[in-house]
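The data layer described in this paper is built around a simple, fixed record for each protein. Such a record has a labelled line for the sequence and another for the backbone structure tokens. For reference, a complete record is included directly beneath this paragraph.
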Amino acid sequence: MYDPDAIRWQSPTPLIPYRHNWNRPEVDWEQIKEGIHQNGIRNAAQTTIAPTGTIATVTGCEGYGCEPAFALAYFRHMNDNGKDVLLSYASPLFEKAMIKSGLDESTRKQLVDKVMEKGSCQGIEEIPEEILKTFNQIFKPKKKRN
């Protein structure tokens, strides 16, 4: 654990200026730094092993190292030598649950498209009750920021 009395942590800064925001929420780095001063920080919050981020998305992994999964389905933008590539991701466990409940491929695709918009299956009437219960506490829809 880091020593909160001798903290050397600094907020991350991009190597090159961001060209796109991708609707990321604003981060109050001073609040985070104050939290680290008060509570310390574990190495697990600083390090992880592959697959992470894009590699995990492309390979269909459910999580990304030590980061929690934040949505059942979503789009991810990737920079490929200056070209923006749009990747789509759907939780393999969510897909397995839909197959197990007997939903056909066409219905599953329609439901994933709806979940893509929300990040959650909650509030989608066509989702079977057992799936809603299973994924209820794991994934909450994010509030959209203007």
Q: What stands out?
A: The chain has five helices and two strands. The two ends are 37 Å apart (CA to CA). The chain has a mean pLDDT of 79. The longest strand covers residues 73-80.
